[in-house]
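step: validate -> pass
step: tokenize input -> pass
step: predict -> running
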Amino acid sequence: MRIKTITTFFMTIAVASTVALAADAPINTLTDQEKADGWQLLFNGQNIDNWKASENQGTFTVKDGILIVHGKRSHLFYAGDVNKADFINFHLSVDVLTKPKANSGLYFHTAYQQRGWPAAGYEFQVNNTHSDPKKTAGLYGISDNFKAPVEDDEWFNYEIILKGKDMESKINGKTITTYSEPADKTNDGKPGRYLSHGTFAIQGHDPHSIVHFRNIKVKVLP
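step: predict -> pass
step: emit ->
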């Protein structure tokens, strides 16, 4: 019995050490392997100089390497040098933490606009406990997900992969939503929900929503 107790004790210490190491791991950086694989950072963890906020700029702040989204409706559009802020096929990876009843979203193939909800591109939802029934990792209004895949107050990895007409969202490595845009769908010269090309945007939904982001990185795909 004593041997089992000692073994359990050391197993607990080992697990705790692993968790501590994970918590202390550098954020907003790329490993040599990631660089070799073509990953590029979109957020430096220090400021949002490479981004452009719309109507309520105070909704977006940076603290301790984390992009904090909290305030009136606003959208933060990537406007940096990576691929000249114009993406077609890509693999986006973001770490996200939602506070209770928070709502946000990740837009792609979009374009900067000063006011309102982005008219161009698609949005993958960020919402685990907000009253909106459309939950995290659903393609908003197109292929929705109605069951939150993760809990609030926990960091999770959110991936969006786009190849041609095919879209996929993953949470912590698990595929949640797949959708293929119809081949004959076009914009007819007007912005809207269709695939073309464009930048990314992070949504500030309302003053009661608090969402944290870090490790925002992309791999441009052929």
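step: describe -> Confidence is low (pLDDT under 50) at residues 1-23.
step: cleanup -> pass
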